[in-house]
Design brief:
One of its GO terms (molecular function) is serine-type endopeptidase activity. InterPro entries: Peptidase_S1_PA, Peptidase_S1C. Keywords: Signal. The protein is an alpha+beta fold. The chain folds into two domains: 1-218, Thrombin, subunit H; 229-420, Protein Transport Mog1p, Chain A (3-Layer(aba) Sandwich). It is 23% helix and 39% strand. It is built from six helices and 24 strands. The strands form five sheets. The protein has a seven-stranded antiparallel beta sheet, sandwiched between helices. A six-stranded antiparallel β-barrel has the order 1-2-3-6-5-4. β10 and β11 form a beta hairpin. α4 packs parallel to α6 (404-416). The protein starts with a helix and ends with a strand.
């Protein structure tokens, strides 16, 4: 039986051997596949300079390569202003064309033109590895050259509407779109995002295969139409999933309000109870989807947010109290910093009504449309209950990148989820 000292030495040796094996594999991997790795550049036609860089990899003998949507988004949105260039490990630059993309899962397929086509390409895995396996991220971080980063496969991110692989390893800027390979040297994911501190996220195998299997080239004139269609389909699925079940409730003041509407919705709370000079008590609950969909540098969409704020006061008379509530409703306009170049002004409709639980409230629903993507809207709904003279529940939801049918389906479900205790 090993003593503690002998065990520690034995365990250290195992770690050293494992680290050495990982380093050897990484070196062999880089040597074997460096020819299929590319730096992807978006070039501004007027200046001739790169505006975006990322990584990519060839997956077949016809020069088809994978990268992220966000790496080539400037070209997709402004194809007359930009072009796609790729640079191989030897510094040779070639042109590339867009084949297809998946804006929801941040993937794109490009085809590399000219004499850069080679017989070597990166095979696609048939399945994900077992949890805890060592996997290897490849890419070009910070424009410093191609590297291999070993890390750990920790399965799919839990409680997430958008599937991502949880990767313990460094995914740095510029590595976006690069492959992540298993111990057989097969691509099983694509670099997409980092949360720092060795916390990375990858697009999983099934999303990559789905895009490859479409086997269709999108015409340049259809790019924005396809983005709008993909966003509408995604938000329709999201809203259908949110409204398919009865939401659990939790007390807030004298009301019962929705708790997390799904396992991928996260809720937080707070209050001003420690403010001894406050003229009213404010208790807050905020719930939201923790991910958005990247469209461009100035636009992310796919948001779902719901806020509930309970206000009560024994210091304000009813007139002053409801003036304060009116002010709170005006202040609850969702501040998303969205450009007027991309969106119309909000158009609002106000009403006073009762829901199925006989809760009386005044409400405002405000809608603005996306100028470049037909059929997409941002929707803000705010309401305040009117049943008490010195207490009120102010509720809000915000949905972005959604169709008219989807927000009309969500609104009555949200309104009717509020009740008195």
């Amino acid at each position: 039986m090993l003593g503690l000292k002998q065990y520690c030495i034995f365990f250290t040796l195992i770690l050293c051997v494992s680290a050495s094996q990982a380093a050897d594999f990484a070196e062999n991997l880089y040597t074997g596949y460096k020819e299929v790795l590319y730096q992807i550049k978006i070039i501004d036609n007027e200046s001739g300079q790169k505006s975006t860089i990322g990584s990519g990899f060839i997956i077949n003998g016809q020069g088809l390569a994978v990268t992220n949507y966000h790496v080539v988004s400037d070209f997709i949105l402004y194809p007359d202003k930009n072009r796609i260039e790729v640079e191989d490990i030897d510094g040779k630059v070639s042109q590339a064309s867009l084949v297809n993309f998946d804006v929801i899962n941040d993937l794109a397929l490009i085809r590399i033109q000219g004499d850069t086509l080679r017989s070597k390409y990166l095979p696609i895995a048939t399945q994900l590895p077992t949890q805890g396996s060592t996997i290897y991220s490849l890419g070009n971080p910070h424009d410093l050259g191609m590297i291999v980063v070993p890390g750990t496969y920790n399965g799919l991110k839990q409680n997430s509407f958008y599937q991502k692989i949880h990767f313990t390893g460094s995914v740095n800027s510029g590595m976006s779109g690069g492959p992540v390979v298993n111990e057989s040297g097969e691509a099983m994911g694509v670099n997409v995002a980092t949360a720092g501190n060795q916390l990375g996220f990858l697009v999983p195998l099934n999303k990559l295969k789905a895009l490859i299997n479409k086997n269709k080239t999108i015409e340049i004139g259809d790019y924005k139409k396809i983005i709008a269609e993909q966003l509408q389909q995604n938000q329709q699925q999201l809203i259908a999933e949110l409204t398919a079940v009865q939401w659990p409730k939790t007390p807030l003041g004298l009301a019962d309000v929705p708790d997390a509407m799904a396992d991928f919705i996260t809720c937080w709370g707070g209050s001003n109870a420690d403010d001894k000079e406050a003229q009213y008590l404010a208790v807050r609950k905020s719930c939201s989807l923790d991910q958005t969909i990247y469209i461009s540098r100035r636009m992310q969409t796919g948001r779902v947010a719901a806020n509930f704020e309970w206000y009560s006061s024994d210091k304000l008379n009813s007139f002053r109290f409801y003036n304060m509530i009116d002010e709170q409703m005006r202040m609850m306009t969702y501040q998303d910093g969205r450009s007027k170049e991309d969106f119309s002004e909000y158009q609002c409709q106000r009403d006073v009504m009762k829901n199925v639980n006989n809760v009386k409230f005044k409400s405002a629903i405000c809608v603005k449309n996306y100028k470049e993507f037909d059929g997409l809207f941002d929707v803000l709904f705010v309401s305040a209950t009117l049943d008490q003279s010195n207490a009120s529940l102010v509720s809000l939801f915000y949905l972005s990148g959604i169709s008219q049918a989807s927000y009309k389906a969500f609104t009555p479900v949200f309104m009717d989820a509020i009740s008195w205790q």
